[in-house]
Design a protein that fits this description.
The chain has 107 residues and is mainly alpha-helical. The chain has helices at residues 2-18, 22-32, 37-50, 53-65, 70-75, 79-98, 102-106.
Length: 107
C-alpha cells in the first residue's frame, strides 16, 4: 500500500512539474495570435504585475488554456474587473509601441 501511495505522489509531482505557468500560457497564446515574443512577454508581465492574482489566473485559464477570445472574456467580467483590465491597457499598448515594427526591421 505504501508503494502505491508513493507512486501516486510521484506521478502527481511530475505532472505538476510539467505544467506551464500562467505567464507562459498567456505569452504563448499571444505569440500564436501573431505578436512578436518580446511584445507578448511585456504584455503578460504588465498583466501579472497589475491585475489581482485571482483575475490574472482566471485570464490565463480562459484565454490561454480554454482559448476564449480575450475581448469576449473581458466583457463577461464584472464591471470592477473590467476596470482592472482598463487600468492595465495603457501599459499593454506601450508594450506594443516599444517593439520595432517587423516590416521596418526588414527594410
Amino acid at each position: 500500500m505504501r508503494v502505491l501511495i508513493l507512486t501516486f505522489a510521484a506521478l502527481a509531482a511530475l505532472t505538476a512539474c510539467n505544467q506551464k505557468s500562467d505567464r507562459e500560457i498567456l505569452t504563448e497564446t499571444c505569440v500564436a495570435g501573431g505578436e512578436n515574443p518580446e511584445t507578448c512577454q511585456c504584455i503578460t508581465v504588465a498583466m501579472e504585475k497589475n491585475l489581482p492574482p485571482d483575475l490574472f489566473r482566471r485570464t490565463a485559464a480562459a484565454v490561454g488554456r480554454e482559448k476564449r477570445d480575450v475581448s469576449k472574456f473581458v466583457r463577461s467580467l464584472k464591471m470592477e474587473e473590467q476596470l482592472e483590465f482598463a487600468s492595465v491597457l495603457t501599459e499593454m499598448v506601450s508594450c506594443e509601441l516599444s517593439q520595432p515594427d517587423e516590416a521596418s526591421v526588414a527594410d
